[in-house]
Structures are given as structure tokens and as C-alpha cells.
Amino acid sequence: MSQENKNPKIDYSLIFIIILLAILSVFTLYTLDPYLKQKYAQTFYINQITWFIAGSIVIGIVMLFDYERLRQVSWLFYSLGLLSLIMLYFHFPPGIAKEVNGAWGWFQFPVLGTMQPAEFMKVFLIIFLAHIMVVHNEKYPAHTVKMDLWLLCKIGITAIVPIYFLAKQPDMGGVLVFIAITATMILVSGIKWRIILTVVAAGIFTAICIIVIYLAFPDQMETFLENTGLHHVEGRFQGWLSPEEYSQSGAYQVIRAMRAIGSGQLSGKGIGIFEVAPGIPEYHTDMIFTAVAEQFGFIGSSIVITIYFLLIYRLIFIALKSKDPFGSYMITGIIGMFTFQVFQNIGMSIKLLPITGLPLPFISYGGSSTLTYMLAIGIVLNVYYRIKTYMFDES
Q1: H-only helix segments in the chain
Q2: How many CB atoms within 10 Å of residue 136?
Q3: If pLDDT is split at 50, 70 and 90, which confidence band does 246 have?
Q4: What pLDDT, in 10s, does the model give residues 289-334?
Q5: Are 218 and 237 in contact (CB under 8 A)?
Q6: Nearest to 199 by CA among 180, 176, 181, 183
């Protein structure tokens, strides 16, 4: 007869990976400090250490409670996150809601500093979607087309509401992350593959139609994008497709990033040397991979990518090992979040993808983003800590 083994376990491998990324973040920001001091009054690497310490405390708090309790308050987290996005939409409260680079995506609090609700909403959405999927599959264990479509509708409605308010900020990078999270979780939701493939085909067809319409009626599409507040998206795509033509507008950032990365060559130019592209905007946040590649070259960049590969591998391992659907669903959403952001951030730095305002997880500077990532890792550690194993189970 099998006996349950409830001995909790701590995933030291995952913790070690996060420590490596934290060291890389602080060290890279330290090397950037002389350059950043020319523009900013604060010391970013010191602030980042503070955020990692705060994030460690968040992980400790998360570990105190059984992650199953998140199901009971998932709707509350989702509602609070959505409320914060609605407040930013109305620029409320005055003096607290803050605009940065044309986007209303931050709250500015006295003493505490800025907070970006969209970052925390990523995890809140993951938790709530996981809860919806578990409740639905428990209520309808037989997967019929009708019930699968109903689940797909519930997932879509839950995701589309925050996506709308993100698009209105505008924060297209955040929109893409939310879509990636939702799509990843749909893949493991139990919905029949023929339904998923039909939705994917419809999405591809819609994208092709939009491209054709844009090429056929460029003036009308430009007016439409201007009226909807999405004209910056057009500029970034133009800069991505024709960087030489838009070198002083949409492609300004990517051209300088490419020059900086190329100057690093195999082993890099050395610590603190930024000669080729001193004018890269957001060097310490969205474009921090450029700083890594410029200083440490192809070898350093490859090491960073390898560490991210190990992170994703470890998350997949824990998701598969967990026998609880709620835990597995949450980790799957977290995998989607990290995988997309790493791919998008590095991809835009090397002109593989258009520029979006997405930080590189754990390495880019940012309080809200760092706390969000640490919260996500806390959930994963919590799931692994409470995995129930049985005698004769494969280890």
C-alpha cells in the first residue's frame, strides 16, 4: 500500500539560478554607473540590491502559506490589479498617476517611489486563469466541444479586459506578454487541439488581412492608428523593417544597440567601456542586454542566455513534477511570461524583433518588475515545496 510522503523540499537549483541572475544584474548596473550618473542622480545598482532583498522577503512571505490558498483570493488579486489599470486609464488620482514617455502606466508615491501595476497584474492574471481552469475542469471533467469553447471564452474574456486597458496606456509590450501568458496556459488547459488550432489559424488569417489592408490603404490605416493612440506601433515596425530610413526616429534605438553589440565581438570590450553607442536610451532597463554584449561579447551573452535556458528548464521540470493542476497551471503561465520576455528583449536588441518596452527578467533595473519576478519565483518554490510524493513513485 502506498504511503504519502509530505516531507517538504526546497529547490536549491532554482534559487541558485536566481542568485546568478541577481549578481549579473547588480554587476552590470555597477559597470553602467559612471555612464548613468551623467543623466540620473540615483545609484541604480544600490537600488537594485534593495529590490532583490525586498523580493527575497516577498518569497519568504509566499512560502509561509500553502499556494492552494491563492485560489480563494485569486479573484481579489485580479480585481485589485484591474482596478489599478482602470485608475491609470482615468489618470486617477491626480498627482499620483504618472506619465512616462507618453504612457500612463505608473503610480508615483511619496517616499516609496514609482509602481507599475501592469507588472503585478501579470502574476495576478496567471493565478486567476489557473483558478478558472481548475474550477471548469472539475465541474466539466468530460471535454466536449461546447464545454471547451465555454472555457476558451472565459479565459479570453478574463484576459482581454486588462489587455484593453494596457493597450490604452499605451503599453504594447505588456499587451504582448499578457497574450503570451494566456496562450501558454490555453495549451495546457485541456481544450481540444482542433479548437486551439482553429483559433491559431483564425489569428494568422486576421494578421494577414491587417497587413494587406495596411499595404493597400496606408493613409487610412495611419489615420486609424493615430485616432486609437497606436501610432507609435507603426513607427516601431517601420524602424524594424527599414532601420536606415528611420535611423533618427523608430530605428534610433535598435541601430545604436546593434552597433554596441557588434563592437563587443567575441570576448567584449571590457568592463565599463561604452565607446560606440553612448547614447542608447534605457541602457539600464530595456536595453541592458546591449550593455552585457558590449562589455563581455558573444561569450558573455551566451552565458546569460544559457542561464535563462536553465531557468526555463527548471520551471518546466517543476510544472511536470507537480501533481496538482492548479500548481502546474500557474507555473505554466510563469514559464510563458519569462520565456516571451527573454525572447522579446534579446530579440529586439539584435533586430530580430521590433522594439518594445519590455525589461530583461531579473537583469534589467526596475522595482515593480523585480518584485513581480520574485513573486513568481516564490509561487514556483511554494509549489515545489509542497509537492506530495508517494511510495513507489518515480523520483
Answers
A1: 12-36, 44-63, 69-89, 117-139, 145-168, 172-187, 193-216, 218-227, 231-241, 252-264, 288-321, 325-349, 367-385
A2: 19
A3: low
A4: 999 999 999 999 999 999 999 999 999 999 999 989 999 999 999 9
A5: no
A6: 183
Q: How far apart are CA 38 and CA 44, in angstroms?
A: 13
Tell me: pLDDT of 245 over 80. no
AA letter at 127: I
Amino acid at 181: I
Residue 275 has pLDDT above 80, yes or no: no
Helix (H, G, I), strand (E, B) or coil at 116: coil
Amino acid identity, residue 185?
A: M
Q: What is the CA radius of gyration of the chain?
A: 22
Domain ranges of the chain: 4-390
Q: Which string of DSSP letters, residue by residue, matches 26-51?
A: HHHHHHHHHHHTTT-SS-HHHHHHHH
CA 217 to chain centroid, in Å, comes to 34
pLDDT of the residue at 4: 47
222/20 Cα distance (integer angstroms): 45
- Whether the predicted model's global pTM rises above the 0.85 cut: yes
* 372 has a pLDDT exceeding 80: yes
| CA pair distance 25, 347, nearest whole angstrom | 19
C-alpha cell at 92: 486617477
Contacts of 88 by beta carbon, 8 Å cutoff, 6+ apart: 97, 104, 105, 106, 107, 117, 165, 169
